Amino acid sequence: MTGVTLAQMGIRAISFDLDETLWPLEPVIVDAEVAFYQWLEAHCPRLTARYNVEQLRARRMEVVQNNPSLRSDVTRSRAEGLRLALADCGYSGAEAEPAMAVFQHARNQVVPFNDVSSSLADLSFHYRLASLTNGNADVTATPLGHYFDCILAATLELPAKPAPDMFRQACLELGVQPEALLHIGDNPQADIEGAREFGCRTGWINRTEMKWPDDFAAADIVLNDLFDLVALAPPLPGVGG
Ligand SMILES: [Mg+2]
After folding, report:
1. Is the pTM of this model over 0.85?
2. How many angstroms does the Cα of residue 50 sit away from the middle of ligand 1?
3. pLDDT tens digit sequence for 172-192
């Protein structure tokens, strides 16, 4: 971690990636896939007789391959894949909406890393905060939603990071120039390269002691967790005299 403070960097707002930055992704996706498939077993037995979990996932991948623009919208590609599979099995497709609701509910049962909630509380005292995700978590359905002034998720109209669109929209909504926005994320390309290309400052959160990939320019700051970020922010009033 570098010693430069956020004030020295001229930071006025901070945006955060969600998956693997504020919470681990894999456990919640595994649980959501199970809940989704169990709902289908109960309500669409012809579908689950024909498709196991992997085969259903393959059907969804086909949708993305045939329509690459859906890559930016994971919820829509999942729903489209399900509709095709339902049609294959003689269902009307009306089952897709309640099945997707089951998936989405389980998808939002995220468990933030231990450093996250108190750090966002501290940072929100000094900075306006944004969340920028390429995934399909609804941060307002998590215990962290109230920390954010701006909440963005990739869609067909708002392409996924590293495209500049979400960074541009965050700057607009937060009322800051790109160079005053610090974007924090785990993905060297989507988060760090994307934010830097748009002119934002960058913080790589490296929770798993990964090696930085040589083919990307380094982030402005490197963090093990959000406590490291709080340490670079001004002290809270009444703390440290
Ligand atoms: Mg991420």
Report:
1. yes
2. 33
3. 999 999 999 999 999 999 999
Q: Which of 58, 80, 107 is the last residue of a domain?
A: 107
pLDDT of 133-180, one tens digit each?
Answer: 999 899 999 999 999 999 999 988 999 999 999 999 999 999 999 999
Q: How close is the Cα of 205 to the center of ligand 1, in Å?
A: 9
Q: How far does residue 21's CA lie from ligand 1's centre (Å)?
A: 5
- Ligand 1 centre from 134 Cα, in Å? 8
Last residue of a domain, one of 60, 87, 107: 107
Helix (H) or strand (E) holding 13: strand 13-16
Same structural domain for residues 60 and 132?
no
Within a domain: 225: yes
Residues 222 and 127 in one domain: yes
* C-alpha of residue 87 to centroid of ligand 1, in Å: 33
pLDDT in tens, 39-59: 999 999 999 999 999 999 999
What's the total number of domains in the chain? Answer: 2
Q: Coil, helix or strand for 205?
A: strand
Residue 187 · residue 202 · CB < 8 Å = no
**What is the pLDDT, as a whole number, of residue 239?**
62
User: How close is the Cα of 233 to the center of ligand 1, in Å?
Assistant: 22
**24 CA distance to ligand 1 centroid (A)?**
9
Going from the Cα of 188 to the center of ligand 1, the distance in angstroms, rounded, reads 9
**Distance in Å, CA 22 to ligand 1 centroid:** 8
pLDDT of residue 65: 92
H helical segments located in the chain = 6-9, 26-43, 45-50, 53-66, 74-88, 96-107, 116-126, 165-174, 194-198, 226-230
Report yes or no on 220 lying in a domain. yes
- For residue 25, how far is its CA from the centre of ligand 1 (angstroms)? 8
**Boundaries of domain holding 86:** 26-107
